[in-house]
Amino acid sequence: MTGASLAGLADRQELLALRRRVFVDEQGVPADLERDDRDASAVHAVARDAAGRVVGTGRLLVGPAGTARIGRMAVAAEARGSGVGADLLAVLEEAAIAAGSHRCEVHAQVQAAGFYSRAGYRQEGDAFLEAGIAHLAMVKDLS
Q1: 2 confidence band (pLDDT: 50, 70, 90)
Q2: Is residue 56 within 8 Å of 75, Cβ to Cβ?
Q3: Do residues 2 and 49 lie in contact, with contact meaning Cβ atoms separated by under 8 Å?
Q4: Does 65 score more than 90 pLDDT?
Q5: Helix (H) or strand (E) holding 44
Q6: CA distances from 26 to 23, 74, 92, 99 (A)
Q7: Global confidence as pTM
Q8: CATH number for 37
Q9: What distance separates the 2 farthest-apart alpha carbons in the chain?
């Protein structure tokens, strides 16, 4: 793995293709829910393997009052468990801090809650459905 970094416009189509494979093809999320107008203004992260293929992505939305939201975290099946997700999360949290955020939120799929817990996120509230998949609201203080 080559690690994660902030993505540029040149990475956009590859990132969207990975998200489509993970969310739409694997998980059955409707394509019209996977993409939204916030992609254009979001900060995106990318992880590539040694051959240069995109194997992970995530996005950051910076909101008002020092709160940011990380979402659309997707890791290719062949790269899961390799640390790619943790690298992406760290890059996005650093970008949130650089943008002045002191708190980060995620809507974590229930099966990924342990990943976010290990990264310092704590659950807020009960599970809810988003795109037909059970999620948990989780937050982390970025101090």
Answers
A1: low
A2: yes
A3: yes
A4: no
A5: strand 43-48
A6: 6, 11, 24, 33
A7: 0.93
A8: 3.40.630.30
A9: 41
Q: Structurally, how many domains does the chain consist of?
A: 1
Per-residue burial over 107-138, b = 16 or more CB atoms within 10 Å of its CB, e = otherwise: ebbeebbebbeebebeeeeeeeeeeeeebbbb
- Which tokens sit at 121? 């996120």
What secondary structure does DSSP assign to 54-115, as a single string? EEEEEEEEE-GGGEEEEEEEEE-GGGTTTTHHHHHHHHHHHHHHHTT-SEEEEEEEGGGHHH
Residue 69 CB neighbour total at 10 angstroms: 20
Report in angstroms the alpha-carbon separations of 137 from 42, 47, 104.
20, 25, 11
**Separation of CA 92 from chain center:** 8
Average per-residue pLDDT for the chain: 94
Cβ-based neighbours of 90, under 8 Å, separated by 6 or more: 4
In DSSP terms, 122 is beta-bridged to 139
Domain limits for position 61? 4-141
